[in-house]
Specification:
Length: 221
């Protein structure tokens, strides 16, 4: 009789645990689905806006494949900014994600996934601009047809500094997947790095919005 009573008590508990596990799994699925939606929108919307407004200025830059890469590269600059913000927020909210997912490992893996997406978009952004016209001419041949050298150098420097720091901070997410390393480094320090990165986003703002580039070249180029 005692065994039967114990089993009767155990079964409801098992059902509750199963339901809790299902809820946590569904939350992970929701976050991943939202990530996919954000990824698609963050690529398509900037590309459409840049390409549409590009018709009002510097038309010779989009006459061939190199010109098209200029549009792709610039639009992916905005995509990088969007994903940098998303990835940083997820890094800061790792503990809350862990509670939602029911696992620190899953929360860390999710953050790593977003960091990886950010770095991939960033690499394609840089590669596209280096292969494009006029950026290829600006960097490799020094043909400053549309932008004064000091502005171009400032734009390039802010982009490089921020890009390098962002890349290594994002890669640190993979290094600190190991809980022993995370505990040794300190979770609070890990969060502080992400807040510092957010403050450094002012460099990205300067990089994107400098006169005669990105938004300004679209409307007044």
């Amino acid at each position: 009789m005692h065994i039967i009573k114990s089993l009767n008590l155990l079964f409801p508990l098992m059902q509750v645990e199963k339901q809790a596990t299902k809820k946590k799994s569904s939350k992970i699925s929701i976050y991943i689905t939202l990530d996919i939606i954000f990824l698609i929108l963050s690529i398509i919307i900037p590309y459409v806006l840049v390409s549409q407004n590009q018709t009002g200025s510097c038309l010779h830059h989009i006459e061939d494949s190199e010109g098209s890469l200029w549009i792709v590269g610039r639009s992916l600059g905005f995509s990088t900014l969007i994903w940098f913000i998303i990835s940083t927020i997820y890094g800061i909210r790792t503990k809350k994600l862990a509670r939602a997912f029911g696992s620190y490992k899953k929360a860390r893996d999710f953050h790593c996934l977003n960091a990886l997406v950010t770095n991939i978009i960033f690499i394609i952004h840089v590669a596209s601009l280096l292969s494009s016209e006029p950026w290829g001419d600006l960097i490799f041949d020094g043909e400053f047809n549309h932008i004064p050298p000091p502005l171009f150098i400032t734009k390039l420097a802010t982009g490089i500094i921020f890009g390098v720091v962002m890349f290594f901070v994002n890669m640190s997410a993979f290094y600190f997947r190991d809980m022993k390393r995370m505990k040794k480094f300190g979770f609070k320090n890990f969060i502080r790095i992400h807040y510092i990165m957010l403050s450094l986003s002012i460099l990205l703002g300067i990089h994107i919005f400098l006169i005669n580039t990105e938004l300004l070249v679209i409307y007044w180029g």
